[in-house]
């Protein structure tokens, strides 16, 4: 192999999910240990891997996606190595190890199919933003891969009295046991002609983490117009 290219070869497998660089996910596939991944995220694979778009388990839960929360998913099964990416976004790999995480569906890349998951309304925000905010909650023993538009920051809320405030358009994920409430504000763009209307921050408190990306989701998830 040409020496300059040798440094880009994949490292030996040491876990079910691993990063290959900052922008690609490597998954060790095994028969009977299926994966749910964002449709279109496969960039390469080795071995024998099959794909089933919108499998029955996903269609059943997708009934809750009338709010727009949710991502089209495919079931991946087989043996080999699977590589996933999402338009060059940073990839964050998490071993839940019995814990849970609440994820913005646009930042959900892949997760073990045996994990418990579903779409839930975020409590404490409906009075601020009409129908409120819906997120995908995943829990159990297994792996989850998230994406971030740029290198994220993971804030440990620490269980103290101080609250952590996040623009919901930059929010990737958080610990679902955190308390969440909304706070009104005006975005700077409302003052310079790019839009109008109130916007909100989400205030988190309690024991847990919040994952924030350095780029706002253009869908503006909690804006109230009128």
UniProtKB/TrEMBL annotation:
InterPro entries the UniProt entry points to: AIM24, AIM24_sf, Trp_RNA-bd_attenuator-like_dom
Domain of life of the native organism: Bacteria
Pfam family, one: AIM24
PANTHER family: ALTERED INHERITANCE OF MITOCHONDRIA PROTEIN 24, MITOCHONDRIAL
UniProt name for this protein: AIM24 family protein
